[in-house]
Every structure is written in C-alpha cells, then in structure tokens.
Amino acid sequence: MVVGLIVLAASVANPTYDPAIDGVLRPRAGASVAFGVQRLQDEFGLVLSLVTPHVFDERIALRIEGGVGWYPDFRALPDDADDQEFAAWSLYGHVRALLQASTRFALASGRIYAAVGPSFLVLDEQVSSTRVAPGVFGVVGAELFAGDDYRAYPLSFFLEIGGAAHDASADVQNRVGRPQTTGTTIDRPIGTGLALAGGLRLYVW
C-alpha cells in the first residue's frame, strides 16, 4: 500500500513539476531535525526526529525518531480494586527507525512521502507486563516549505497519517506494590491504531 501511494504520487507530481524553477525552489534535501506532536489511536505524544540527507535523486532518506507518549488510564479493574489510585495518563517511551521515500510536487515548494519501519515501546511495569514492546509504524505525509519567489527556506511544516501496531497491552491492575496482571480479555492495546502527526522540520544543511 505504501509503495503504491508513492508510485501514484510520483506519476501525478513529476509531469507537472517545472524544471525551470527546480534549481531554486526545490525542497531542501539535506539533514534535518523535526519536532512534532502525534496521536496514536487514543494516545497523545511528542516526537523528535533526525533525518539523514536524501539520496538517489533526493528520494530516499532514513528517519530515526524517539519521544514520549501518554496512555489514557481507562483500564477496567476487578471489583476489589476500586480503591486503586489511577492517574489520568500513563507515560511511556518510544523509538523507531523508518525508511522514507518521497517525491516533489509543483503546487508549492514541498514533497509528499511515505515512511515505514520497526518501532519499539518502553513501558512502565505498573502499566504493562511487557516492558519493551516491538511493533511496526507507517505513515504517508506532506511537507511544505516556507520561502519566497527566489528560494525555499530551511524550515518546513509537515502533516502525516498512517497506522501503528505494537505487541503490548495495559494488563496491570494495580499502580502501587508488586504488579499484578488482570488475567482478563479486556486489556487495551498500547500504541496500536490510527497514527496522526504534525510539526516543524529544520534543515541544518
């Protein structure tokens, strides 16, 4: 699906791209640092991303990302655990490595892209019996550059939509003391579902 979207994007974007302005208004393609906010299904988070310079005609790059997320503590508890003190959100960490393929488009100085790769969650023992959860993360996105009539500035805004799946669930019923699993089938998955993100990217060269 991701590859198909990139092929479709390339077929639409490249024929309309004006080579006369390609040299001065083309999107930046060097190394960059990005900061954004994300939503994974019902969870919110912050993400910091390092992107390598684009290679192979400025189409391929590697993204290394890390950040934190907040899981909503709406876990169902046994009747005898009603007195447990549950915070509104539980903090966890995430890290991922994504391969990104992109193409430029002519409507503005920018690019559309798709990225996919492995992802890992680092979870507290009072949230899940799984401490490090492997998974997969994939998105399609658009990046628009600030600029004027003569050049694209080294700053862009991006929006992404996709999905994520991780092998972890909120299966711990108590927030204090020795962790005890719920032993039920109503445990809710963590870091799994619809992925939305947006933020700013700064190109350092």
What does this structure look like?
This protein is mainly beta. The chain has a single domain (about 1-205), classed as Porin (Beta Barrel), CATH 2.40.160.20. The chain has helices at about 1-15, 20-25, and strands at about 30-40, 45-50, 60-70, 90-105, 110-120, 130-145, 150-165, 170, 190, 195-205. Strands 1-2-3-4-5-6-7-10 form an eight-stranded antiparallel β-barrel. The chain is elongated, with a radius of gyration of 20 Å. The two termini are about 30 Å apart. Residues about 5-15 have low confidence and may be disordered.
CATH topology: Porin
The CATH class is Mainly Beta
**Category by helix and strand content:** mainly beta
Instruction: Name the overall outline.
Output: elongated
How big is the Rg? 20 Å
The overall average pLDDT, rounded, is 81
| SSE series | HHEEEEEEEEEE
Q: Output the strand order for the largest sheet.
A: 1-2-3-4-5-6-7-10
CATH architecture: Beta Barrel
Helix content: under 10%
Strands, count: 10
What's the structural blueprint in terms of helices and strands?
Layout: H1 2-13, H2 19-25, E1 32-40, E2 43-51, E3 60-72, E4 89-105, E5 110-122, E6 132-147, E7 152-166, E8 169-170, E9 188-189, E10 193-203
Antiparallel strand pairs: 1-2, 1-10, 2-3, 3-4, 4-5, 5-6, 6-7, 7-10, 8-9
